[in-house]
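worker-03 picked up job from queue 'complexes'. Input manifest follows; three sequence lines, order preserved.
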Amino acid sequence: MTLTVDDLRVHYRTLRGDVRALDGVSFTVSDGEILGLVGESGCGKTTLGKSLIRMDGRMRHIGGTVTLDGDEVPVGDDRAMNAFRFHRISLVPQYSMSALNPTRRIGRMIRELLASRGVSVDTEELHRRLALVGLKPEVLERYPIELSGGMKQRTVMVISTLLDPSLLVADEVTSALDVSNQKAVAHALVGLRDQGLVTSMVFITHDLALTSHIADTIMVMYAGRLAEKAPAGVLTTAPRHPYTRRLLAALPEAGVRRSQGRLSGIEGSPPSLLSPPAGCRFRDRCPLADDRCAEQPPVVEVAPRHHVACWKA
Amino acid sequence: MLTLDRVTKTFRTGTFSGSTLTAVDRVSFSVDRGEVVTLLGESGSGKSTLGRMILGLTAVNEGSLTLNGEPVRPGKEYYRRVQGIFQDPFSCFNPVFKADRIFALVKDAYHPRVSAADWRTRVEGAVRDVRLDPAQVLGKYPHQLSGGQLQRLLIARALLLDGLEILVADEITSMLDASTRIDVLNLLGDLRERGLGVLYITHDLSLGTYLAESTVVLRNGRITERGATEKVFGNPLHPYTRHLLAAVPRLGVDWADAEPVEECVFHAAGAEGDLYEAEPDHFVACARLPECEGR
Amino acid sequence: MNAMPPLGEPASEPAATSAPAQEAAREAAKEAPKETAGETGRPAAPLSPGRETLHYAVRNPKLLIGLGVVTVLLLTGLFGPFLMDGTDPNAYSGSQAVPPSGENWFGTTTFGQDVFAQFVHGLRATFLVGVIGGGIAAVIAMLVGFFAGYRGGVVDEVLTMFTNIVLVIPSLAVLLIVNAYLGVRSVPVQGLFIGLTSWPWAARAIRAQTFSLRTRDFVDLARLSGSRTWRIIFREIAPNMSSYLFMTFILLFGGAILIASSLDFIGLGPTDGVSLGLMLQSAQQWSALQLGMWWWFVPPGVGITAVVGALYVANVGLDEVFNPKLRES
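worker-03 finished. Artifact:
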């Protein structure tokens, strides 16, 4: 068992009070597993990703624990987290351009970065890893601006995994890329896992279709809580939570025409997380909701590895 | 009908340097009333530049742009008939004014004599037409509304113009959540049923095919393939179109390896802007397609 | 078009939220405004934009305090001299170097001039040179900056080149030469020359701001509504930088006062008259500090600081009034 998150609560401090961005989320990621984390804006998926690596100034750790390979991760303590970052938990950010120093050649940047962590560069190993994500060794002699978006994203992936971390958090890494680059980056991520360079991975995205191709397990979040978590194939074909179902129904597929069947979105919007209503948070938009939903549904394992937080599931 | 005939746009790369960059290269197609045309392209394909040229926000270097046979002259009269909606709804609203101001600008320019009360009724009608509750959205500042609400208000604004014929929608759903995206798309489809022509510019293949009667695939400023949507995606002829189609992740369908564009034997030769008619209403920019089909 | 039936039932719920790409930035912030929209101290009846700005303006302490201090000083400078029976502020009227007293409120100089009389007249001259110098510079900077930034291309190149040329001209040297040839004898002429030489940096700053605002989609939308260039500049772009423009004016205003003081210091000030700069300069020249005559240099120093500082505080307040996002916090 690699990562265990237990009842994690993280709030954002604002002038109007605390925004409960992450309100009691529990899940596990096993060795070699890629967890796809899906949800709409404001559901807390980015907050969760940030909590695992670095909280920003407005975030506060309210409760819950994170355990990695048996050691507790001090998510609320920025300084204590230094021992984990890069060595055991690493991040590939959404905008790799801002992660790379524009005035340094890639190779020099890597040498400096490793030197600051007290590690020397194994050039052959570096070349092997670049090849793994489909990059030529020549990129080491280039400046970031000379690389395309997809190449930069893959370069950052190699840099992030140089120390073979246990957990890699990939936050919306494909969102800013064209479809053809998306695929190369997604495959490179899977390759890193297959080669054992990272033990497991949390892949955060808003694109359910893309996740279904690379993740082993998909977790859907809604308004700061877990809605459903299941193996990728099960979640996309036999979802149990009404939110997951409606979300899948709102996705047009290439080739599907409106004349063949009109899709519809989900009416309404997620509740404010400043003072969220009691009970199921999807209640107001849910077609199945009844009085029972005024009580918060627990996360139940309805089938092996299939967890749902819904009374109706 | 809005017709583009060999429209070209080149940018100078420096003020005093002679080097230029061709963003749009001899593009021809048309958008008729009552149809949705999808303009599909990846970043750098020139699709947004093309949209801006149709809206008169960027000058056309060569080629012609005509509306019902008349050459396009951007200005008040043209904008009565051709309007646009853009990608980022938050950037479309002037943050220091209330969101309603976009309607006030339309009134000042096009309906100065309508009384305030009548205008309010019309605005409320247009807002209801885009399925918003006037009481919830009017009188608010842009930052108090969501992206989906703002995007709908922009569509409502276009509806206030009496003579509207063509609507250019540039990536209007790319900043919206999946659960709202489809509603905004359906709205565009409803507009078509009211006799509007819609040019839907997008990079998202699945969203593009959902609505459009015809599709134009753009790559590096040139059309690679265009025609009826069923034909372009049912029987893609150009290697690039096949590549795009293969690269899109689809639920429950294996993510097949995309056909690399560079491997097309005829790719290097390229087409010189002219499209070859492969079948009725299906054009492809591969002049050597007959040879290719026969190999 | 409006006679046609509606497309569907109006949704009773607000639609979904912003882009996934911007999630991180907005995740927390967006919760706040959405739910209290329309009830945060906003008057029930809809007000016109001007009335609404006023509504917030009269409730902003920073703006009221800043403007209050400026108004008091301005009134002192405007009407003070009339109340002093038109006495010459430079007249050697009383005993020499006495500290503040009931007779000489701010004391007297080494030569027996009344410091309060000088201060009141000096304030007037200081405001005048600030308004003329800062005003002229602000107008030129706005015209050049807006036009260059909005039009871009060749217009921008030419105007920027012109701005840079004026920027690198050593303005003090030019002022020296102008003075030597024309002989500046009055405060307005001094202000005019300061205004004509001090605008370039402000023009560059306004150009940069305009340049970034011009690419925002609401400018395109205004063009699609048939608005013309200057209307877009003044009705769409300028309101977005109103506090920035006011800030620029304040800095130009303060700068003009300081340049005037420097000119006064090297003997190129208005030969007949008095200004806060001239007072500081003569206090320095006659060793007021060493002699412990604090009442000679403190009033002009405090005067200059108070004018510029109060305007700055007012500017922060104005920022809150103009920016609807800051109002709610």
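worker-03 released lock.
The interface with chain A takes residues 11, 13-24, 26-32, 34-36, 329 of chain C (CB under 8 Å).
Residues 116-327 of chain C form a domain with the MetI-like fold fold (CATH 1.10.3720.10).
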